[in-house]
Structure formats: C-alpha cells, structure tokens
Design goal:
Length: about 120
C-alpha cells in the first residue's frame, strides 16, 4: 500500500501489486461476481493472510483499456483449498511499462484491509 491523499482513506495499492508472478505465471485475481454468487465476501479473498494484506477492486474496463485479458481459471482440488477457488481468474498481458501498472493501481480502490488475523 502507498499513501495517496487523492483517494478515500488516503491509501491505495501500489503499482507493484499488479504484476505477474515471479515465475512468469499471470497475475491472479478473484472475480467479484463469482465471489458474490457463492455467498462469500471481500474478507474471504484474504483468507488466512497476515495483517497488511488488502483487497483492491480492479475495474475490468481498466484492465481491458490496459490491454489485459481476464480469463476464468477456477481452481479445483488444490492441495491447500481457498474459499474463493471457484472465483479464481488470471490476468494475462504485458504489465510493463510501470506506467501501465500505475494507471491500474490509481483506479483500484482498496475495499478491505486485513488488520488482524
């Protein structure tokens, strides 16, 4: 998270949050429509995460404008299940230059921050 006096709450996700995994696999996300449909909440997205983790709501329109593709990728029978596995998605596309990640971060409000475990 970074300080940003222009957003409600004064904090937003940093651009670094919007990158592919270090092993090269695409950025993971959870589709809010599916999370809602299966009766879960934003709190479930950060299930068992430490304080400081947060959920950012990324507008799909922004991802499309930034040449990102959203692909449903429900996880079935994982070794360590997560309640939101059915809502899992991948965000594919070049996340560079950093300006692209900055633009995504600037319009993706934090909707839940883990404060205690």
């Amino acid at each position: 998270m970074v300080s940003d006096p222009k957003v409600p709450g004064g904090r937003r996700a940093s651009a670094a949050a919007f990158t592919d995994d270090s092993d090269g696999s695409p950025m993971s996300a959870y589709l809010q429509s599916v999370v809602d449909c299966i009766g879960l909440t934003k709190e479930h997205v950060v299930h068992e995460k430490e304080p400081g983790w947060a959920v950012a709501a990324i507008p799909v329109e922004t991802l499309i404008a930034e040449e990102q593709n959203i692909e449903r990728d429900p996880i079935t029978a994982p070794p360590e299940p997560h309640p939101c596995d059915p809502a899992h998605a991948l965000v594919r596309g070049n996340k560079n230059p950093k300006g692209r990640r900055d633009r995504i971060a600037q319009v993706s409000p934090l909707v839940h921050i883990v404060t205690k475990r």
